[in-house]
């Protein structure tokens, strides 16, 4: 078998056999196939696509190129959630404790933020003392005892994906649906959960900018999971505007705690209920969707979900006083009020621009090595469909700059699209693929 023939086949629109894919992944990870041949093959996949079964095989090979987590020491149904990335997306911080308070086991490996999207680990680390690096045995103990732990990646998960992603990044082949699906699902399969709920974001702040592409990606990831013996569900949700009102690490912890107390923004709460219901369903908890949503709402309102969050913080070494006193996370030195000079209605808020503005404040990383500032960020006081009048404060900027850059203020103002006509509330959940 040789790589040249494998490339020709894919270039000409044919399916690569299981044996060819096995050869490609195994030999590439060993360093026996040069990057230029893999780049040519990736570009061929970009143009020719892959059959579902072919993508499923590639994904499992990528997953098994490294460690496969064995979560069997955790008792009960283990269900994971993955979001394809967005601005202000703090759902893991809420969903984890929420579904754990309903009896599900959540042993979750999360990542850091890069570019305009934030990362769960960075958010959790704004809580003083919170440890994301814990031993595997302790991880199992915490999940068995409290129902929930969120940690950094342990072991060597899907090294083939790491190598592929680095090449895709520099060869303009990131936005290929089979390659995105394979990349996301290889890490999810390696993480070892029985069930996986995917939150596929669709809109201006997401990888998938239109519903057709988001549905194609969701269906393919669900098929890949099922092919490899996992229970799957994918919720396609709107990412035209940031989720919730706060963007930035400690600000997002604050909003998560408010939501766990039953006082969260409507869109964030609704998405958590929807994703939570899918997670409980995969874990065989609750009779039907209504019953599951009732349980989830009840636990947001009766304090059980918040209590779970407190337990997780304590178990992972964090200071659980944060639940009652946000100030222990520190505060930005200055708060700047962004005022609008028009009357009308908010037609849209460009999530990508808000994410980039937050990154420039220091809430995110332009490069992997960059440090972040946990306390800076943006609070959006007005969201899509809200009425505004000239002089209203539409957003607050929490910053640590001696003089706030006008570019950042303009970026936020320009992210707001204002119209004189009434605007309907945008749809949050587009579709669910099971
Ligand atoms: N997230 C991933 O992990 N991989 C992709 O290719 C795209 C988004």
From TrEMBL:
Family: Belongs to the thymidine/pyrimidine-nucleoside phosphorylase family.
SUPFAM superfamilies: Nucleoside phosphorylase/phosphoribosyltransferase catalytic domain, Nucleoside phosphorylase/phosphoribosyltransferase N-terminal domain, Pyrimidine nucleoside phosphorylase C-terminal domain
Lipoprotein in keyword set: no
Origin: domain of life: Bacteria
Organism: Muiribacterium halophilum
Listed GO CC annotations: cytosol
Gene3D superfamilies found in the cross-reference section: Nucleoside phosphorylase/phosphoribosyltransferase catalytic domain, Pyrimidine nucleoside phosphorylase-like, C-terminal domain, Transferase, Pyrimidine Nucleoside Phosphorylase, Chain C
Gene symbol of the encoding locus: deoA
Name of this protein: Pyrimidine-nucleoside phosphorylase
PROSITE patterns with a match to the protein in the record: THYMID_PHOSPHORYLASE
InterPro entries, A to Z: Glycosyl_Trfase_fam3, Glycosyl_Trfase_fam3_N_dom, Glycosyl_Trfase_fam3_N_dom_sf, Nuc_phospho_transferase, PYNP-like_C_sf, PYNP_C, Pyrmidine_PPas_bac/euk, Pyrmidine_PPase_CS
Entry's transmembrane regions: none
Swiss-Prot/TrEMBL keywords: Glycosyltransferase, Transferase
One Pfam family per UniProt: PYNP_C
């Amino acid at each position: 078998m040789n790589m040249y023939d494998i490339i020709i086949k894919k270039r000409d629109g044919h399916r690569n056999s299981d044996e060819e894919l096995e050869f490609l992944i195994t030999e590439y990870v060993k360093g026996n196939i040069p990057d230029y041949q893999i780049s040519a093959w990736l570009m061929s996949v970009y143009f020719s696509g892959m059959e579902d079964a072919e993508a499923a095989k590639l994904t499992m090979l990528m997953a098994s190129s490294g460690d496969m987590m064995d979560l069997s020491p955790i008792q009960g149904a283990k269900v994971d959630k993955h979001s394809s990335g967005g601005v202000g997306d703090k759902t893991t911080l809420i969903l984890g404790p929420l579904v754990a308070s309903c009896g599900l086991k959540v042993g979750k490996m999360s990542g850091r933020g890069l570019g305009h999207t934030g990362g769960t680990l960075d958010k959790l680390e704004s809580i003083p003392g919170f440890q994301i690096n814990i031993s595997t045995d302790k991880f199992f103990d915490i999940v068995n005892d409290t129902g929930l732990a969120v940690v950094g990646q342990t072991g060597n998960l899907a090294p083939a994906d790491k190598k592929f992603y680095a090449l895709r990044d520099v060869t303009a082949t990131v936005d290929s649906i089979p390659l995105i699906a394979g990349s996301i699902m290889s890490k999810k399969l390696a993480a070892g959960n029985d069930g996986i709920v995917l939150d596929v974001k669709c809109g201006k702040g997401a990888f998938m900018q239109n519903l057709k592409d988001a549905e194609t990606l969701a269906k393919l990831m669900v098929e890949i999971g099922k092919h490899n013996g996992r229970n799957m569900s994918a919720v396609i949700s709107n990412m035209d505007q940031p989720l919730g009102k706060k963007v930035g690490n400690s600000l997002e912890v604050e909003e998560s705690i408010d939501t766990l107390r039953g006082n969260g923004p409507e869109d964030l709460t609704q998405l958590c209920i929807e994703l939570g219901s899918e997670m409980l369903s995969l874990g065989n908890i609750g009779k039907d969707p209504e019953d599951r949503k009732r349980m989830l709402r009840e636990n947001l309102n009766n304090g059980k979900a918040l209590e779970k969050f407190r337990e997780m913080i304590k178990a992972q070494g964090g200071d659980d006083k944060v639940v009652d006193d946000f100030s222990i996370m520190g505060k930005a030195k200055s708060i700047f009020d962004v005022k609008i000079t028009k009357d009308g209605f908010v037609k849209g808020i460009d999530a990508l621009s808000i994410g980039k503005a937050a990154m420039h404040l220091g809430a995110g990383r332009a490069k992997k090595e960059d440090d972040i500032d946990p306390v800076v960020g943006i609070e959006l006081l007005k969201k899509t469909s809200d009425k505004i009048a000239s002089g209203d404060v539409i957003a607050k900027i929490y910053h640590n700059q001696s003089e706030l850059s006008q570019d950042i203020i303009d970026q936020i103002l320009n992210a707001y699209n204002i119209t004189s006509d009434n605007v309907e509330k945008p749809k949050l959940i587009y579709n669910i693929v099971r």
